[in-house]
Protein 1
Amino acid sequence: MIRIRDNPDRKVGIYFYTRNTYLSFVSDYDIIIVGGGLAGLTAAIHLSKENYKVLVFEKKAYPHHKVCGEYVSNEIIPYLNSLGVSVLDTGAVQINNLELSTAAGKVVKTNLPLGGVGISRYNFDNLLYMKAVKNGVKFLFESVIAIDYIKDCFLVTTENNSSYTSRNTIGAYGKRSSLDKRLNRNFIKQKSGWLGVKAHYQFDEFPENKVSLHNFNGGYGGLSKTETGAVNFCYLASYKSFQKQKNVRNFNEKIIAKNPFLNNFLEKATPVFDEPLTIAQISFEQKKSVENHIIMCGDTAGLIHPLCGNGMAMAIHSAKIAAERIHDYLKSKNGNRNHLEKSYEKEWDKTFRKRLWMGRQLQTLLLNEKMSDLALRAVTTSPYLLRNLIKQTHGKPIIC
Ligand SMILES: Cc1cc2nc3c(=O)[nH]c(=O)nc-3n(C[C@H](O)[C@H](O)[C@H](O)COP(=O)(O)OP(=O)(O)OC[C@H]3O[C@@H](n4cnc5c(N)ncnc54)[C@H](O)[C@@H]3O)c2cc1C
């Protein structure tokens, strides 16, 4: 039987009640963060800087590669600097030009209003992890299988059947997890028709300051350089078009190579990875930013279409909002959880809802062959229009 009580030194905890004795079976944390990607790691660094006891669960040891376009908007650079994380010190390349092409090879070029940097997730996540460890954050490399909210306290259970309690829990476990099923989230009940593929290549002629986005039948892919000098090629494809080709090699040869820019790249570039990385079941459905009292951050709260190149900045920005709201809640004597949740939801909506909507419209446009030709013709005659569209999917730099 599980009973909840305040223990004598006033730390909130969950205790087994057996034979009239309360047995503590857990450690106490101010905040448990489930998932150590960009959102989880940023929240961990921010909250540990405020001297809270933070525990992060991550299922994979660092460093590791991830399916991602690896272009990060400059929006979050000042904020990361304020946390003591300097992305540019890793050799990340500065990117300020964009090239867009249709499946048939019609092209438009413009400069990026805000710009960004190219950095591999292998190094980016690891950089944040090392900073979090330095700040005293505890990491456990285990998969979380359940998060339960019991009497104003969270019970987090891992695959090894260990349980831990916390006063607050942040869900930062990415696009999709068995936890979403357990939480009975709406988006998980719907089929998702997208998959992502990513690999690094040696391709010296690709300019450092450019990100290029190329359309093909059933999807689009981005090229940009990373701090290692390798070019990252990452694409999103619909199952419908991928299924017919059965594997990545066939899909690259038969579909992707029809775009002349991507054909040139695939012919000349040398793969660095043995095999490309793939992820399936990518969902762009709307999600709630608070679920069963868990504050959701990054992709766990909502994923923007990758063509916007803004998912990483949104993950980091949402972690900032969550950390600030949780700090306000914990430092006030009579912290009101309802107020914490409502103020996080409100700020999340205000900051991201419009970007997500615009991302959905742009993706629909880009994936419709006729419409994308027309749209590209319109933006070729007006780079102002293109820059304005990009602005609509990005935030302003976070000044700290
Ligand atoms: C094809 C594609 C291309 C993209 N390109 C770009 C781009 O160029 N620029 C950009 O800004 N964004 C891009 N994005 C979006 C970006 O990758 C995500 O928005 C970003 O990674 C979100 O970070 P996160 O911390 O929310 O999630 P993640 O980085 O996915 O981190 C979640 C972490 O949780 C861990 N985890 C999951 N379940 C559990 C569990 N049960 N227990 C413990 N740990 C768990 C995972 O191992 C993972 O490390 C792209 C996305 C896709 C699909």
Protein 2
Amino acid sequence: MSRLPASCLWQGGLPVAAASSLPSIAEDCDVAIIGAGYTGLWTAYYLKRQDPALQVQVFEAAHAGFGASGRNGGWLIGGMAGQDTWLAGLDEDAQEATRPLLYGMVDEVKAVCAREQIDCDLAHGGVLYAARGVAQARRARAWLSELHRVGHRDADFRWLSASELAAQLHIADGQGAVFSPHCATLHPLKLVQGLLLTVRRMGVRVHEACPVAGFGKGRVRLASGEVRARWIVPALEGASSTLAELKGRVQPAQSLIIATEPLSAAQWDTIGLAGRAAFSDLSRGVTYGQRTADGRLLFGARGGYRFAGRPRWDFDPQDDEFLQRTELMRQFFPQLQEVGIAYAWGGTLGLARGFTPFALRDRSRGVACAGGYGGEGVGTSNLMGRTLADLIGERETLLTRQRWVKGEAGLSSLRRWEPEPLRYLGYHAIRSAFVLDDALADRQDIPASLRRLVGAAADALEGLMH
Ligand SMILES: Cc1cc2nc3c(=O)[nH]c(=O)nc-3n(C[C@H](O)[C@H](O)[C@H](O)COP(=O)(O)OP(=O)(O)OC[C@H]3O[C@@H](n4cnc5c(N)ncnc54)[C@H](O)[C@@H]3O)c2cc1C
């Protein structure tokens, strides 16, 4: 057993199974999966559930959970990025059929954890999208109306008044919140490691420290030679651009997290979150937080984008980016001014053009893949793992009929991102507008007309992203 560096809370101190590597003689198999994050492991799990005789192998460059799956904020959301745009285009019956699939991700992960005895500190406390200040409250109410317009009910997303919010979470200038029960919090790496043990028990061979150099029809190229497989499942998400076959289709972007030292019961009394609900605010900074099982406050926010979309896994805890998050966390919780930050880390996630996740089966290339979860992949990867297993098993199911499943055009149906420097410039233009809009939101010394103009510009730029 080895110990991982302590900069990431989840990885600090958690024992990691020693990496195994592939014997020099390559084996043929039915399905070769590239990447041992949630997508790869969930796909392996459901394939073996459906057909225990299937030969499934997973090839992982580092160790299971090295990528976003072992470093995320631990929100298990019963929903997926961009879902409301799809729901809006469906008739009522189709909406009725689709919504339970989305909400149901939380219960499905809970059910697997119970069945396979995976303890990942899962707490099903819902999520609070808190409005800090008047401008965010306005945005929250508009968002809630939109949610109800596309068929979500009050039982799924409802308004909490300022006092109802305060009963759950004490946040500076909390004006109310949108609450949804469809979210749980968990320890991300414990989930990965539980899945790893489970699929190995089911007969899946997971080869760690075994990078894939590329793939073609029916072949996966390793340093030690080639493996032949009927189906290849690249499950790389934020690292997709590192393989030529996927370049330009899933864009890497970063997110960064800090975690405090463990807080005392008295400190938690000043914050709340007794039921370990996930929380964020309604700013454009994509903030997210949770109360961890070991009593820390975890706080994350959208990170950067590197020219040419290079993934990033190493972060300097002294970097300004972490100081900004610390400052932001203290704006949320002035009561935590003196509390130390014990961990600071980041990772890379994947964005599909149009910002909606996808699953696809490309028969001509023998490839099935999913991704583009846009920072909401803990739950979505479970849904996509089930979907990929159905696609590979040629099963026509409710999952394979969903709009996130691309047609037979396969990989070619994935919209490509704009070439550089457009992506880089576009990202920074949008980010600057978001930062300015957040900074001006409740500034009474700035004319309301100017604030509205900045807000409208940020909305327009956000619209361009889709
Ligand atoms: C900081 C951060 C916070 C996040 N917070 C949340 C959250 O709270 N809730 C939520 O829903 N989502 C969150 N996400 C997103 C979520 O973590 C991801 O969408 C999800 O984990 C993606 O899983 P994956 O298996 O598709 O990819 P990954 O977990 O990235 O796995 C890909 C694997 O492929 C391996 N690999 C790469 N190249 C090769 C190669 N050539 N050969 C073999 N293997 C290779 C990598 O080592 C990695 O292990 C967050 C992401 C980040 C970065």
